[in-house]
Sequence to fold (340 residues):
Amino acid sequence: MNDSNNTYRAIEITSPGKLALVTRKIREPGAGQVRLKVEAAGVCHSDAAAVEGQWPGLQLPRVPGHEIAGRIEAIGEGVTKWKVGQRVGVGWYGGECGECESCRRGDFVTCQNPIIPGITTDGGYAEKAIVEARALASIPDDITAEDAAPLLCAGVTTYNALRNAKLRAGDLVAVQGIGGLGHLGVQFANRMGFTTVAIARGKDKEELARKLGAHHYIDSVAEDAAQALQKLGGANAILATAASGKSMGPLLGGLKARGKLIVVGAAMDPIEVSLPQLLFGSRTIQGELVGTAIDIEDALNFSQRQHVHPMNEVVALEQAPAAYAKMMSNGARFRMVLKM
Ligand SMILES: [Zn+2]
Ligand SMILES: [Zn+2]
Fold:
């Protein structure tokens, strides 16, 4: 850090696919904003939307990262709820527009013109970040910044998807994929009181899945996952976290009547479904996207009380290009986190 000469270090996307370490001038937060001293930033698969230049209207250079954990170090005009020194985090939801139909109906997470850190504004791969105060979530004292970072996106995504699915304690809930999202999904499903099934390819993840809280493990290479779920009585919900649409469609056959396939894993290939399976049994396929600041705060508090811990590989800020590449090649076990 070079506070003395009013600069800070950041990782910028200079052109699509290129990340570079740069020095920038420290700015003051505007009205309604705060400046964070970033302590940790998660590397998320959705960062690719910015890094690979795919996001419509993306402007470069841009600092990626939407899992930002740190401390408030400066406060803009009109911010009254937050204090300098407070530990806070910001996720994908960086502030709603307030004017679109979703916002007018109070559904901020589906805002049609949202602020997204690391995409529409500079994000967390940096020693400093300026964010909207209304997007802040308070971080409990006994969660470290490294542990908080992945909970701000991957955590709230799986937590919210499960808690909003109208499930009841004891319901059979399967989590497909034991990766960045799934290893958290299994923990949340277990802690929320569901009979938890982990579905992954191969035997190697079984031991870990059981340690995270899975009561059953299905190796989708050795057996048909849908049939295996039906042998357990059928799932009330399946949280699909794999980055593959192709792998999700056949899971529909593993649901009970009125069961839900909840999609949180982002992939570009389509989901193919059997219409009889969808219709006969009135099953549902639904997408879920992160949560608002208060949802994040709930996810952090729940994780702290119920001992939900992300498994992280923590590296220094300047290692961001390697960390991003490792995450993109599916090599991370399970979340890459930059520590400032
Ligand atoms: Zn994310
Ligand atoms: Zn809006």
Q: What stands out?
A: The radius of gyration is 20 Å. The mean pLDDT is 96.
